[in-house]
Design goal:
This protein is α/β, with parallel strands linked by helices. The protein binds zinc ion. The site of zinc ion has 6 residues, from loops.
Length: 408
C-alpha cells in the first residue's frame, strides 16, 4: 500500500519503502534505545512484561512476585520488530535506535510531509496504557518499557509530523479557564483515625482548597467519618478488596446503604485483599457503571478510558483511569516516606499540564503531606477530586470528537 503524508509506523514492506527511495534492515530485539538527533537519549523502551503476586491471606505468609503469562496470544508480549531505515537524498533522520548488540541505525525519518517510524512506537504507547486481566494482584512492570521522556518526545513528534504535513492540530486544555493543571489528593483509608486526626486532615485540605478522593474499605466504613468527609465536598471512593464482580457489587451496595453513590474504585493491596486485577477490575467497574478506577505503574498525564484486550482486538471501556498516583508512603514506619522525591517531582508534573495525584494513607506521614501541600504554588492548579477531573476530560474529549474543540 502506498504511504501518504503524515506519520506512519512500521514495520514497512520493502515494496512500500522502495518508491520512497528507502531501504531497511530488520531486527528483532528486547528493547531499543531511542537517540533523537541533537538531544539526550530517551532511554531504552520495549513492550512491558508484567509481574503479579498472590496477596498473602495472613501476616508472615510468603508470596513472591512471578511473571504473568497470558492465556491468549493477543495478550502476550509481542516481539519488538525494529527497522533501521536506509535513507536517500531529501530524508532527514530524526532519531537513531541502538540495540543490545550495539548495532545502530535510523528509526525515525522525515521527508517533507511524511514521517516514518521504523519501530512500534504507538503500539508500545497503547500497550503501556493497558493492565492485563490478572488472577493474582498486579505487582509491577518488568524490563525497559515506555517511559515519560519517550512519551513526551512522541507527543512532540506527532505534533511536528502534523505540522510538516500541513495539518492543523488543536490542543484544548480540559481544565477550567485560568487553570494550567489539576491536582487530586488520594487517600487510602486502610486504618481507622481518631476524630482529632480527621478534623486535622479536613482542615489541611481546606487550607489549600484541596479536594480529596477518599477511598474507604467496606469493612472499615465508619458512617460518621465518611459523612464528615463527604460534607466537606470530598469524593467518597470505594477502596476495594474484591476478587469477583459480585464481591465488588456487595461493597458498592454497602456504601449505597450508607447513602453514598460511589462513582470510583481503587484497589487495596493489603493482606486479605485480591489486589489490583487489572483489566478484570476495569470490566467489573464498567459493568457496575462506575466512572473511574485506578491504574498502577503508568503515567499517562491525563485520565483516559481503560483498555480491554479481547479476541476481537483492543477496545475502550467506559470507565476512566486517572494517571498513576505518586505515593508519599513507602511503608508505615515514620521514616518510610518519599517527601524529598515528591517535593521535586510534583511541581515538575504540574508544570506539564496534566492531572497529578498525591497519595497518602491518612494515619501516617501527615506532617510530610502538610509540608508537601505547603510547598506547592497552587493558584493556577485546579484542585479537584478524581471524579471532577475525569468528567472534565471526558467532556473535553467528546467536544473535540464533535469537532468544536477550538471553542475550549
Ligand atoms: Zn489500601
Amino acid at each position: 500500500m502506498p504511504i501518504g503524508d503524515g506519520l506512519a509506523e512500521g514495520p514497512f514492506d520493502a515494496a512500500a519503502l522502495e518508491p520512497l527511495g528507502l531501504g531497511a534492515t530488520e531486527h528483532v530485539a528486547e528493547w531499543v534505545e531511542i537517540l533523537p538527533t541533537g538531544t539526550e537519549t530517551l532511554g531504552e523502551v520495549g513492550f512491558a512484561t508484567h509481574l503479579v503476586r498472590r496477596i498473602p491471606a495472613a501476616r508472615g505468609e510468603r508470596s513472591d512476585p512471578y511473571r504473568w503469562t497470558s492465556p491468549h496470544a493477543i495478550l502476550s508480549t509481542p516481539p519488538l520488530r525494529v527497522q533501521f531505515l536506509r535513507l536517500s537524498d531529501g530524508w532527514d533522520c530524526l532519531a537513531e535506535g541502538k540495540l543490545a548488540d550495539g548495532s545502530r541505525g535510523c528509526i525515525v525519518a522525515r521527508r517533507g510531509g511524511l514521517t516514518l517510524v521504523g519501530f512500534p512506537f504507538l503500539a508500545m504507547l497503547v500497550r503501556h496504557h493497558w493492565m492485563p486481566p490478572v488472577d493474582d494482584g498486579y505487582y509491577s512492570v518488568e524490563g525497559p518499557c515506555f517511559n515519560v521522556a519517550a512519551d513526551l518526545w512522541l507527543a512532540d513528534l506527532v505534533a511536528s509530523s502534523a505540522a510538516a504535513a500541513g495539518m492543523r492540530v488543536v490542543r484544548a486544555s480540559p481544565w477550567p479557564a485560568g487553570m494550567g493543571s489539576a491536582l487530586t489528593v488520594r487517600f487510602d483509608h486502610d486504618r481507622a483515625i481518631s476524630e482529632a486526626s480527621l478534623q486535622d486532615m479536613l482542615g489541611l485540605l481546606d487550607a489549600h482548597g484541596a479536594k480529596a478522593s477518599w477511598g474507604f474499605l467496606a469493612r472499615l466504613s465508619d458512617p460518621a467519618t465518611i459523612a464528615a468527609v463527604a460534607r466537606r465536598g470530598h469524593e467518597i471512593v470505594l477502596h476495594s478488596e474484591a476478587g469477583t464482580r459480585s464481591a465488588l457489587r456487595q461493597e458498592l451496595d454497602h456504601f449505597a446503604s450508607l447513602g453514598h453513590d460511589i462513582r470510583g474504585v481503587t484497589a487495596h493491596g493489603g493482606i486479605g485483599s485480591a489486589g489490583h486485577l487489572g483489566q478484570r477490575l476495569y470490566e467489573w467497574a464498567s459493568a457496575e457503571g462506575l466512572e473511574h478506577a485506578d491504574i498502577l505503574s503508568r503515567d499517562a498525564h491525563l485520565p483516559h478510558p481503560a483498555l480491554a484486550a479481547t479476541a476481537d482486538g483492543i477496545t475502550e471501556l467506559p470507565v476512566y483511569l486517572p494517571p498513576f498516583h505518586r505515593s508519599l508512603d513507602v511503608g508505615t514506619k515514620p521514616e518510610a516516606h518519599a517527601l524529598p522525591v515528591l517535593l521535586d517531582d510534583i511541581p515538575r508534573r504540574l508544570e506539564r499540564g496534566g492531572l497529578v495525584t498525591i497519595m497518602n494513607h491518612p494515619d501516617i506521614h501527615r506532617e510530610e503531606l502538610r509540608t508537601l501541600l505547603g510547598s506547592l504554588d497552587l493558584p493556577r492548579v485546579w484542585r479537584a477530586s478524581h471524579l471532577d477531573a475525569v468528567r472534565r476530560v471526558r467532556a473535553a474529549t467528546e467536544r473535540s470528537v464533535l469537532g468544536d474543540g477550538q471553542r475550549a
